[in-house]
Amino acid sequence: MLSLMIESKISLNRVTKYLLAEEVQRDFITRNNSLNTDTAIKVQNGNFYWLTEEEKQKKKEKEKEEKKEQGDDKIDDQQESVNITSHNAPYRLVLQDINVEIKKSSFVAILGEYISFIVNNFLILNSVGSGKSSFLYSLVGEMKYDATTPPAVELNGDVSFVTQQSWILNATVKDNIIFGNEFNEKKYQDAIKYSCLQSDLDILINKDETEIGEKGVNLSGGQKARVSLARALYRNSDIYLLDDPLR
After folding, report:
1. Which of 222, 241, 223 is nearest to 233 (CA)?
2. Which of 1, 88, 165, 233 has a CA between 20 and 30 Å from the CA of residue 105?
3. CA-to-CA distance for 197 and 52, rounded, in angstroms?
4. In this structure, what DSSP letter does residue 172 have?
């Protein structure tokens, strides 16, 4: 009984944290499937930043103080988790003055330190911590921006994002790949083939029917990455964002 209560409390805390999380603002992203353009991705005035946990806490405390001064001590959960995009919010730009256009059917790699230009389909950045992952997150609306100078992101087609930290369901390998979509044998086999997952399936006891533990505990890092890639390939999107796929 005690263990059940502890597990229930942990689950409740997770659900609470999820429900009180900030709303993701994607109003600066334009999505369409126009055949009259050869542009796949276009970013204009790209200025994005992350907030640290300390900065988030400071903002919440400031909002509470402002409410008290206005004579309203009650702050509901929705107000408390307001999106932080005001001009006066404390932040340091991670991505600054990003203006880039990527054509359809292009294969673009992101390397280096500061995004400056594209050379032979290679977007120039630096090494660790230079903003490569942040650039990909900015394309799907996961980063903060200054509301006074909002960016403009155009995505022409469906997007699949394979993150650096693989997201794995506590389900079979097959279920992780199909991910609730209608099963198609050819698409499924192609996804396994092009993600180089077949050799991993061959060593699993029940092949693709092998149950994966929570957070992929019984898979290696590379195997989890390949399962995530296979899932993205099975979705058959127009645009693929791959964060550190060769790790």
Report:
1. 241
2. 165
3. 37
4. B
Question: Tens digit of pLDDT for each residue in 53-111?
Answer: 666 677 677 767 776 776 654 444 434 333 434 334 456 777 888 898 988 888 888 87
C-alpha of 84 from chain center: 18
- Residue at 35: amino acid letter: L
The distance of Cα 95 from the centroid of its chain, to the nearest Å, equals 16
Closest CA to 132 of 244, 245, 209: 244
Beta strands 152-156 and 29-32, pairing class: parallel
Residue 221 carries which side chain, given as an amino acid letter? G
Task: Give the separation between CA 86 and CA 37, rounded to whole angstroms.
Answer: 34
- Do the beta carbons of residue 112 and residue 151 sit within 8 Å? no
- φ, ψ dihedrals at 131, nearest 5°: 110, 15
Cα–Cα–Cα angle for 51, 56, 62, nearest 5°?
A: 135
Fold of 162-242: Rossmann fold (3.40.50)
Give the global pTM.
0.71
CATH 3.40.50.10470 fits 29-50+91-157, yes or no: no
* Nearest C-alpha neighbor of 48 from the set 63, 28, 30: 28
Going by the DSSP 8-state scheme, the letter that residue 101 receives in this structure is E
User: What's the rounded Cα separation, in Å, for the pair 57 and 41?
Assistant: 34
Q: How far apart are the first and last CA of the chain?
A: 43
pLDDT on residue 76 = 45
